[in-house]
Amino acid sequence: MSSVSTVRAVPSVRAVLLDDDKLVLFRRTVPGKELYWSIPGGHVEPEDASLEDTLHREVLEELGAIVSDVTPLTTLECARDEGVKTQHVYGCRLVSMDLALRCGPEFVDPARGLYEVVRLPLDPAEIIAINLVPLELGDYLADHITRLPDLIS
C-alpha cells in the first residue's frame, strides 16, 4: 500500500511564461531550504471563474504581469504525501511586467523567502541544471522547452 494519500488537493495553475526567447521563472531562496526554482502560478480560488482567470490573477499578483496567447499545455498529477496535486500548465507570452505591482503574503512575509525573477534560454540543458519544482514540471519542460514558441499561440 502506498504512503501517498488519495485525497485530492486544491488544483493549481502554472504559467510557462515566455518573454521573447526566454522562460520567465522564479529563483526561490527560502530560509532553511535548498535553493529551488519555480514558475508563476498558484491555487484556484473560489472567486476564480475559470482556470484561465486563475492564471491571469496569479501572474498579476506574482509578477505585476499581463499575459497573452494563453494556451493549455498539459495537466500534471503530482503525488505528494498530503495527496495528489493537479497542476494545470498553460503557456503564455509576456505583454508587460511591473514588479512594483506584485502583491500577496509571499512578498510581505520574510519567512516566505525571496522570489527573484530570472529569465532562462529555451534550452533543455538550462532546465536540467536547476532544481525546478515540482519535479514533474521540470521533466515536462526539459522535454518540451525548445518547442514552446510553436506550442503557444
Q: In words, what does this structure look like?
A:
Helix content is 21%, strand content 40%. With 153 residues, the protein is of the alpha+beta class. The protein has a single domain (12-151), classed as Alpha-Beta Complex (Nucleoside Triphosphate Pyrophosphohydrolase), CATH 3.90.79.10. Strands 1, 2, 3, 4, 5, 6 and 7 form a 7-stranded mixed beta sheet that branches. β2 and β3 (36-38) form a beta hairpin. The longest helix is centred in the middle third of the chain and has 13 residues, at 51-63. The chain starts with 11 loop residues before the first strand and ends with a helix. Mean pLDDT is 92; it is low at 1-5.
Q: What's this, in brief?
A:
The chain is of the alpha+beta class and 153 residues long. The chain has four helices and seven strands, in the order E-E-E-E-H-E-E-E-H-H-H. It has one domain (12-151): Alpha-Beta Complex (Nucleoside Triphosphate Pyrophosphohydrolase).
List the helices and strands and how they pair.
Elements: E1 12-19, E2 22-29, E3 36-38, E4 41-43, H1 51-63, E5 65-80, E6 83-97, E7 114-121, H2 124-128, H3 135-144, H4 148-151
Parallel strand pairs: 1-6
Antiparallel strand pairs: 1-2, 1-4, 2-3, 2-7, 5-6
* The CATH top-level class label: Alpha Beta
Q: For the terminal residues, how far apart are their CA atoms?
A: 43 Å
What structural class do helix, strand and pairing data support? Answer: alpha+beta
- Taken from the alpha-carbon principal axes, the silhouette is globular
> What would CATH call the homologous superfamily?
Nucleoside Triphosphate Pyrophosphohydrolase
CATH topology: Nucleoside Triphosphate Pyrophosphohydrolase
Taking the sheet with the most strands, its summary is:
7 strands, mixed
The helix content is 10-25%
Q: How many alpha or pi helices?
A: 4
Low-confidence stretches: 1-5
- Following the backbone from N to C, one meets helices and strands in this order, namely EEEEHEEEHHH
The number of distinct β-strands equals: 7
Radius of gyration: 15 Å
Domain count: the total is 1
The CATH architecture assignment turns out to be: Alpha-Beta Complex
**Beta-strand content estimate:** 35-45%
* Average pLDDT score: 92
